[in-house]
Design brief:
By secondary structure, the protein is of the alpha+beta class. Helix content is 38%, strand content 13%. It is built from 9 helices and 9 strands. Strands 3, 4, 5, 6, 7 and 9 form a 6-stranded mixed β-sheet that branches. A hairpin with a 2-residue loop joins strand 6 and strand 7.
Length: 285
């Protein structure tokens, strides 16, 4: 008996679920490689958003309307009714490379490909409509237009899934990391507000070793986040402050370590400051 041919939604959902099972956060993609648009509750960032959040914490919207920040590996979310409706209208599958610990060098034309072959280590390649995707192991901040015909898709960005590609994937080289450093504006410093010291600067209920271990664990939680990075950063800040925000043992060095871990996952210094301030407000410290 001939098996029925799966429809487009079934094909896309099957591909998405297979990628999610492999640890790759996915989302539905509309025509012209666009993510699903914001739902009415989230338009104009009314929900606070995730990619461009103005308040800390994750948006509670159940729909995949926040581009890369909505990408998930949870099969229950992918199969939920709002997402199933989105898959019905989708034209393809996208994924969040940074969430999978990957970086995609998106080469849009023959000249860009020639440059990559002359300048970058050979790695796994995926043919695209106009050029190639070169995939490396390791995440970094995504950026568009780092040179003519070259975009970087990694943290805080998405790429279209076009198949596994060919070749052996190699570690992300410094020459690729340097592309965004050159393209980025100078980092702006953000003043940190540290809770007032109490009791002579020593934590009255924990030892300095406990604090150092707690900060290290907080850094690890942020570093290991593969999705919902904004929400993870806020929860980590909240946890650290709930334990040490009132005893005066936190220093700018401790807070700086947390901010650096968050910025390595794609958070801006401004978003770190907002999340920290909101966590302090929530706890009254």
């Amino acid at each position: 008996m001939t098996q029925p041919t799966p429809n487009r939604r079934e094909r896309l959902m099957t591909a998405a679920l297979e990628l999610a099972a492999a640890g790759v956060p996915v989302l539905p993609l509309r025509a012209r490689k666009l993510p699903v648009g914001n739902c009415p509750a989230c338009r104009n960032n009314a929900c606070g958003g995730r990619p461009n959040m103005k308040t800390a914490g994750a948006c509670a919207c159940p729909a995949p309307c926040h581009a890369w920040a909505a990408a998930t590996t949870d099969p229950n979310v992918l199969n939920s009714m709002p997402w199933r409706r989105a898959w019905q209208e989708a034209a393809g599958v996208a994924y969040h490379p940074g969430g999978a610990g990957l970086t995609v060098v998106d080469l849009d034309n023959a000249e860009a490909i020639a440059w990559a072959r002359a300048s970058l280590p050979a790695t796994r390649t995926v043919p695209t409509t106009r050029g190639e995707h070169w995939l490396y192991r390791g995440a970094m901040q995504g950026a568009n237009g780092v040179r003519s015909g070259v975009d970087i898709k990694s943290t805080m960005s998405y790429a279209r899934w076009l198949g596994p590609g060919t070749g052996t994937m190699v570690p992300l080289p410094d020459v690729v990391r340097a592309l965004t450093v050159k393209a980025s504006a100078p980092a702006r410093s953000v003043a940190l507000t540290v809770p007032a010291m109490v009791g002579g600067g020593e934590c009255p209920h924990r030892t300095p070793t406990y604090l150092d271990r707690g900060i290290a664990m907080a850094e690890q939680r942020i570093t290991e986040a593969r999705e919902a990075v904004h929400a993870t950063v806020y929860r980590v800040f909240l946890a650290v402050l709930s334990t040490h925000g009132r005893c005066g043992c936190l220093t700018e060095a401790h807070i700086g370590r947390l901010f650096l871990a968050a910025q390595a996952k794609g958070e801006s210094a401004r978003h770190c400051a907002i999340a920290w301030a909101n966590a302090r407000t929530a706890l009254g410290v």
